[in-house]
Amino acid sequence: MKRQILWLMPILLVALLMFSACEESAEPADGEASLEAPESSEDPDYDEEKVLATVNGDEINQGQFDAYIFQLKNQYESQHGVNLDDPQHGDVASELLVRAMDQLVEQKALVQRAKELDISVPSSVVDQQIEEIIEQQGSQEAFETFLEDRYLTQEDLEILIEEDYLISQLYDEELDLDEVSYDDEELSALYDRFVEQREAMDREPESFEEVEAELAQSLIERLRHDKQQEYIDSLIEDSEIEYFYN
Questions:
Q1: If 0-12 CB within 10 Å is exposed, 13-18 middle and 19+ buried, where does residue 164 land?
Q2: I need a labelling partner for 203 at 20 to 30 A (CA). Which of 17, 137, 192, 244 fits?
Q3: Are 2 and 63 in contact (CB under 8 A)?
């Protein structure tokens, strides 16, 4: 089986794992996706090249979708200590499937916009990232196991790094996220919610001064995420998107 590129941008992954509602999500039909490992050889009717959606003519195929789902399943299970194959977590698994395609479509639109602006990726960026991952893994052999466990080839990983860089540079160029700020009322309101949560758990809340820095950072991250999502929504609105579920 030819393994497909896994599109797993950090900001999009965070948004997906928060399971934010999406009123106009395109939901794959039964049987179109699975949370199992993407091993097509077990199903003679499986077609990894089957086109599930296009974004301005660029395709998202079955193999890409399945690889993405498989990685997100592992990520969620690791973070939350649950087994999404357990029927009691069926609602979470279903929502993961629904949101995954939305994230892939958004990623495609972001990369397209970056290329429209002639943003490019220096080869040194990719090489350095690969070297750092190999170093983190401890050896070339461990690195290859790292890739196999994630159903990736090194080429897949290189494309992932390239697209990560493209979107990061796109945000820098178009959004000025470093300029995002908040006012005192927003921070005060966040602290009030913090106090309510602590009291609901019968815990004594820390003073404002004790948690101010942490709350401020949380607020900045939320405001940046909101700004990114508004930008993504505008790209999607201006894009021609087609779905091909049977």
A1: buried
A2: 17
A3: yes
- As a whole number, mean pLDDT of residues 113-117 equals 96
d(CA 86, CA 102): 24
Tell me what the mean pLDDT of segment 119-135 comes to.
Answer: 93
Q: Within 10 A of 65 (CB to CB), how many other CB atoms are there?
A: 25
pLDDT in tens, 38-65: 554 467 778 888 999 999 999 999 888 8
Least confident span in 35-44, 84-93, 190-199, 208-217: 35-44
Report angle CA 232, 226, 35 to the nearest 5 degrees.
Answer: 65
Asked whether the beta carbons of 17 and 92 are under 8 A apart, the reply is no
pLDDT at 202: 94
Instruction: Answer yes or no: are the C-beta atoms of 111 and 233 closer than 8 Å.
Output: no
Handedness of CA 141, 143, 145, 147 (dihedral sign): negative
* Residue 113 contacts residue 235 (beta carbons within 8 Å): yes
Q: How many CB atoms lie within 10 A of CB 119?
A: 17
Answer yes or no: are the C-beta atoms of 133 and 89 closer than 8 Å. no
Q: What are phi and psi of 243, to 5 degrees?
A: -115, 145
